[in-house]
């Protein structure tokens, strides 16, 4: 048996996704994201970023190819098992926070545990609440918080099940520059200090430059893999792809 030296949190093997109408949104994508990596996914509009994220996270199934979360082949699970695995092993952060307005901050954060049928680890919840700086806001409703605070609630919610990977879809897209930087600082800290794996789709080269590695998608394929990306290099590459 071959020893696995680096544990992959997310793996894609030759993933193709074709939508009805014949659009080949993913055209044979292979990818391995080692645990503890902060990966950014960039690319022009329509290049396949969201499709990649949805297939990798088990929100959608590939037309062909395989996807794995921590070695479990999620693409071959039926809908029910996929949902169970997703609820326990995958966290999500969205551009518009997607908090439930009628629930308190505290109940929003622990909601994934209730959905997964898992008892809260109070110590872990307390650690997360402190990390995201919301200890004084636990009984507030989302509407009583700023956008940046709401996104920090969403970050805590995404981590509450101790997922193998957090998928963040334009997590700073609705925030001003300073607040966006705070949320990116938070994601960076979670990767550096807790070893969390994060996959972030973003249009913003400055946001992607906070990642360890950036993928640049074009026409459903990985056009570039950029380690230690800089905003200038990514912006230049995107401009090239958008004008090709
Ligand atoms: N449900 C769908 N049905 C048909 N075509 C789709 C569907 N979802 C996406 N597509 C097509 O697949 C391709 C890739 O779309 P995708 O949303 O993954 O791109 P993206 O890079 O995330 O774009 P954006 O940056 O604009 O969000 C596009 O041509 C898109 O029109």
From TrEMBL:
<dbReference type="InterPro" id="IPR015854">
    <property type="entry name" value="ABC_transpr_LolD-like"/>
</dbReference>
<protein>
    <submittedName>
        <fullName>ABC transport system ATP-binding protein</fullName>
    </submittedName>
</protein>
<dbReference type="InterPro" id="IPR017911">
    <property type="entry name" value="MacB-like_ATP-bd"/>
</dbReference>
<keyword id="KW-0547">Nucleotide-binding</keyword>
<feature type="domain" description="ABC transporter">
    <location>
        <begin position="10"/>
        <end position="244"/>
    </location>
</feature>
<dbReference type="GO" id="GO:0005524">
    <property type="term" value="F:ATP binding"/>
</dbReference>
<dbReference type="GO" id="GO:0022857">
    <property type="term" value="F:transmembrane transporter activity"/>
</dbReference>
<dbReference type="GO" id="GO:0005886">
    <property type="term" value="C:plasma membrane"/>
</dbReference>
<dbReference type="Pfam" id="PF00005">
    <property type="entry name" value="ABC_tran"/>
</dbReference>
<dbReference type="InterPro" id="IPR027417">
    <property type="entry name" value="P-loop_NTPase"/>
</dbReference>
<dbReference type="InterPro" id="IPR017871">
    <property type="entry name" value="ABC_transporter-like_CS"/>
</dbReference>
<dbReference type="GO" id="GO:0016887">
    <property type="term" value="F:ATP hydrolysis activity"/>
</dbReference>
<keyword id="KW-0813">Transport</keyword>
<dbReference type="GO" id="GO:0098796">
    <property type="term" value="C:membrane protein complex"/>
</dbReference>
<dbReference type="InterPro" id="IPR003439">
    <property type="entry name" value="ABC_transporter-like_ATP-bd"/>
</dbReference>
<keyword id="KW-0067">ATP-binding</keyword>
<dbReference type="InterPro" id="IPR003593">
    <property type="entry name" value="AAA+_ATPase"/>
</dbReference>
């Amino acid at each position: 048996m071959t020893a696995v030296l680096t544990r992959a949190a997310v793996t894609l093997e030759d993933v193709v996704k074709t939508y009805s109408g014949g659009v080949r949104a993913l055209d044979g994508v292979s990818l391995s994201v080692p645990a503890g990596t902060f990966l950014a996914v960039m690319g022009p509009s329509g290049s396949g970023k969201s499709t990649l994220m949805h297939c990798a996270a088990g929100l959608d199934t590939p037309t062909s190819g395989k996807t794995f979360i921590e070695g479990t082949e999620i693409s071959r699970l039926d809908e029910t098992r996929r949902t169970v695995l997703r609820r326990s092993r995958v966290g999500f952060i969205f551009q518009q926070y997607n908090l439930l307005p009628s629930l308190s901050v505290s109940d929003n954060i622990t909601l994934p545990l209730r959905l997964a049928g898992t008892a809260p680890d109070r110590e872990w919840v307390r650690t997360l609440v402190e990390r995201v700086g919301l200890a004084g806001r636990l009984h507030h409703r989302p509407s009583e918080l700023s956008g940046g605070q709401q996104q920090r609630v969403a970050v805590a919610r995404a981590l509450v099940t101790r997922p193998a990977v957090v998928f963040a879809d334009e997590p700073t897209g609705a925030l001003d520059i300073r607040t966006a930087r705070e949320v990116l600082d938070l994601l960076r800290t979670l990767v550096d200090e807790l070893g969390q794996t994060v996959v972030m789709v973003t249009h913003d080269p400055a946001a992607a430059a906070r990642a360890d590695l950036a993928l640049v998608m074009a026409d459903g394929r990985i056009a570039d893999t950029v380690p230690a990306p800089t905003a200038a290099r990514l912006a230049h590459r995107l401009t090239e792809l958008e004008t090709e």
